Amino acid sequence: MPTSRSYHDACGIARALDVLGERWALLIVRELLFGPQRFAELRAALPQASSNIVTDRLRELVAQGVVARRQLPAPAASWVYELTPRGREAEPVVLALGDWGGGLPPRDGTAALSAVSMLIYLRSAARTDPARPAVYRMQLGAQVWTLRSADGTVHITQGEPAGCDAGLATDPRTLNRLLGDLAEMDAAEQAGLAVVTGDRAALHRLLGAVTV
Fold it and tell me: 86 and 156: one domain?
């Protein structure tokens, strides 16, 4: 059942936690940072959360005006969840928590690693050459994102690019390894864990721009 617990504290921090402090709530916000998601996509990104828990958190976030639910136009006609303007205001908070948490030692080397969390890391850590803008198609699992490097930063949107300089199809954990060591690319391709298309040099520039 949805929770109605409150800190009953007038401080803004406590009031924010009343809305986003329940377990999995902030991770749902994280998963929606780059665009709308279907319920099944959210469940796949949060494998340790039960369907009931995700349903409850979504219901609460919708009631609080953080998330909205809408139906896609035909022919898709499926229902998706997306951040409201109010919900998007939480993005700097989520990213700041990620920066802080990144300095903590990992507790479990087999823990889940979502596609969105890897894209957040890539966007924050990449220092691309502003003189060499490019567009990339990034497929992680079944989902596709458009990455544009411009002005020394990476901009990410959900969906297929109209055209791209290079593409990479892989999984989040393999992408994590590639960002740590580009020399792993050949082995990943030979093992069928990564597929590169287009300008390989451009893709290497993107992945190599990540500063750990």
Answer: no
Query: DSSP secondary-structure letter at 184?
Result: G
Residue ranges making up the domain that contains 78: 12-101
The total number of structural domains in the chain stands at 2
> Which phi and psi (to 5°) does residue 22 adopt?
-70, 150
Do 154 and 126 touch, CB atoms closer than 8 A?
A: yes
| Spatial distance between the Cα atoms of 6 and 135, rounded to a whole number of angstroms | 45
* Residue 1 belongs to a domain: no
Query: What CATH number is associated with residue 58?
Result: 1.10.10.10
How far apart, in whole angstroms, are the C-alpha atoms of residue 147 and residue 126?
Answer: 12
| 94-134 per-position pLDDT tens digit | 999 999 998 888 777 678 899 999 999 999 999 999 999 99
pLDDT higher at 73 or 77: 73
Taking the alpha carbons at both ends of the chain, their separation in whole angstroms is: 41
- Helix or strand or coil: residue 54? helix
Q: Is residue 7 part of a domain?
A: no
